[in-house]
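Hi support team,

I'm opening this ticket because the web form for multi-chain structure prediction keeps timing out on my end. I have pasted the exact lines I submitted so you can reproduce it. The total is 432 residues across four entries, so I didn't expect it to be a heavy job. Is there a limit I'm missing, or should I split the entries? Thanks in advance, R.K.
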Amino acid sequence: MPIEIPDVVIDRLPLYYRLLSRLEQEGRAVISSQELGEELGVTPAQIRKDLSYFGRFGKQGRGYSVVRLAEELRFILGLDRRWRVVVVGIGRLGRALSSYPGFEGQGFDIVGRYDSSPGIIGTTLDGNTILNAADLEADLRKTPVDIGIVAVTADAAQDVADTLVRGGVRAVLNYTPARVQVPVGVELKHINPVLFLQSMTYHLKLRQRDRVARAD
Amino acid sequence: MPIEIPDVVIDRLPLYYRLLSRLEQEGRAVISSQELGEELGVTPAQIRKDLSYFGRFGKQGRGYSVVRLAEELRFILGLDRRWRVVVVGIGRLGRALSSYPGFEGQGFDIVGRYDSSPGIIGTTLDGNTILNAADLEADLRKTPVDIGIVAVTADAAQDVADTLVRGGVRAVLNYTPARVQVPVGVELKHINPVLFLQSMTYHLKLRQRDRVARAD
DNA sequence: AAGTGTGAACAAGTTCACAGCC
DNA sequence: GGCTGTGAACTTGTTCACACTT
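Hello R.K., no limit was hit. The queue was backed up. Here is the completed structure from your submission:
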């Protein structure tokens, strides 16, 4: 009976969670789907439907207990434990990611920073020694890691992903412009600013055309 | 007669374009939707339907001319011109973005790097002087910019976005975990690695549960 | 009275399947 | 013969609207 939950729903949950988390800290006790929706730019029906995939967390006539719902989402998303993350590729981007303060507070521990360049291996970053990427697979085998962030050059991306997977990593976040392949059963997401920009320019161009057309 | 083209379609075009671009360089003359689809993990019908929103670029019995289709996509996406970009916030992430070699080659010129910290203003990065964020709006008024990348702290994000918009920027790429608002008519995209990771942990947790269940 | 949870209606997006052209 | 372009069929996702609970 595992009713398939749409991926779009899963992708919205962290958004809900982030807001709930903030409200929780602000000491807000109860909130309605209406108000949640306004805050997030989503319809209230959407929020209720999304949550209904996982249970009945609200009270009619009242709304959702902020604390309760935050906790439920934490549980659903697996944020009630800590996740072990390695960053591979300590160039400028890898350095920025390794030092990103937002991970720690959300349950993600960066437990390894790897690079393959002799000039970088052995140096320290925020007090952590950069390890040799050649040791990555062996290290992963010794002490398992959940998530790998790939911030190497495009041509090395597939190799690194393969190594991560061989080492037992079950989720790969690829910051490389290369499209990498992983076996089924391994989670994979791509973050590529150029693709974002290119879809934005489509809209910019459209709008410019409109403006010119209207000016006639 | 502007038939509304779904946003999902627009978001796929840069993917198609990137592959076509590579094929073009490799000297490939013609390709079928079948093969494009295999390469991209998309159904051939999807590709044909997507492209059909914009015109009839293929030849029956033959496929698509790689050069022709790449050119069409370049035109559709507005990549047949250069776009002026500023990066605001030159912390570790802003530095990484400012130096990212992928922008230049795809038609995006970083024409300004701004920060508000006295220790950073006036320093240079890749030979470019970091400018004072206090001058941002005036600078934008003088020499217009198309796209703004926001890489400041979360609490400053909305202010920076407002400044960009007042300065005439029509697209904002927000690297901040803060949800920012922009007026209608301004493009806005968010890139937040934590949200990506949090939807991945949902799947990781699911899979772990499955594994435990099977082990019984 | 207010607001959830949810089947039913609707909308959006994807795939099918085939006529038409090269 | 092979592959595009595209209505039609289907599937997926969203919104509606209301019975029901507090």
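A quick check on our side: Residues 116 and 187 of chain A are 24 Å apart (CA to CA). Let us know if the file doesn't open in your viewer.
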